[in-house]
């Protein structure tokens, strides 16, 4: 029987930790590109950081775009006259163009990006609206006085009958 690995889906999503923890034993196919290498870190309860190794790229050659819960990172190396005149004997540093996409969970926003020492750090935060957060609803008994929720009186079952 074949086993499948969900790692490609897990690597390309941010904020779906609980979902993928549940599905970790189920399979998928590993067909994700491997360039450029990256890490996804959880820096807080609702904070994440994606670190991408972009050695040799400048800020002008990199682009970040967020559209419909998809973070797209693009890199395109521009050729310079100095590198064209030099004869390269061995090219070990990849300078090819790339495009990497990350699916973001609902309410995950990009807070900023920093390029330092060949690493691009993209900081993300999950901002859950107050209407989506859990809240406690008080229950009024038949013998107790009705309680209020945000200034409005709560009808008890005895008053409604």
What are the main properties of this structure?
four-stranded mixed beta sheet, mainly beta, 161 residues, single chain, 4 helices, four-stranded antiparallel beta sheet, elongated
Elements, N to C (H/E): HEHEEEEHEEEEEH
Structural class: mainly beta
Q: Spatial order of the strands in the main sheet?
A: 1-6-5-4
Alpha carbon gap, first and last residue: 61 Å
Helix content: 10-25%
Count of helical segments?
4
| Strand residues, percent | 25-35%
Rg, rounded, reads 25 Å
Mean pLDDT: 76
What's the β-strand tally?
10
Would you spell out the secondary-structure blueprint of this structure?
Elements: H1 7-11, E1 13-14, H2 17-22, E2 38-44, E3 47-53, E4 62-67, E5 70-75, H3 81-85, E6 98-104, E7 108-116, E8 119-126, E9 148-149, E10 152-153, H4 157-160
Parallel strand pairs: 1-6
Antiparallel strand pairs: 2-3, 3-8, 4-5, 5-6, 7-8, 9-10
């Amino acid at each position: 029987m074949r086993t499948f690995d969900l790692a490609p889906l897990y690597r390309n999503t941010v904020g779906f930790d609980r979902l993928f923890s549940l599905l970790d034993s189920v399979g998928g196919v590993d067909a994700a590109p491997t360039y450029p290498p990256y890490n996804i870190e959880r820096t807080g309860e609702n904070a994440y950081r994606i670190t991408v190794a972009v050695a040799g790229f400048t800020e002008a050659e990199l682009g970040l775009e967020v559209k419909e819960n998809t973070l797209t990172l693009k890199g395109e190396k521009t050729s310079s006259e100095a590198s064209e005149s030099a004869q390269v004997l061995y090219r070990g540093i990849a300078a090819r163009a790339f495009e990497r996409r990350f699916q973001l969970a609902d309410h995950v926003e990009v807070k900023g990006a920093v390029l330092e020492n060949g690493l691009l750090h993209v900081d993300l935060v999950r901002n859950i609206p107050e209407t989506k957060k859990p809240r406690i609803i008080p229950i009024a008994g038949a013998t107790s006085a009705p309680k209020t929720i945000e200034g409005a009186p709560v009808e008890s079952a005895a008053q409604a009958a």
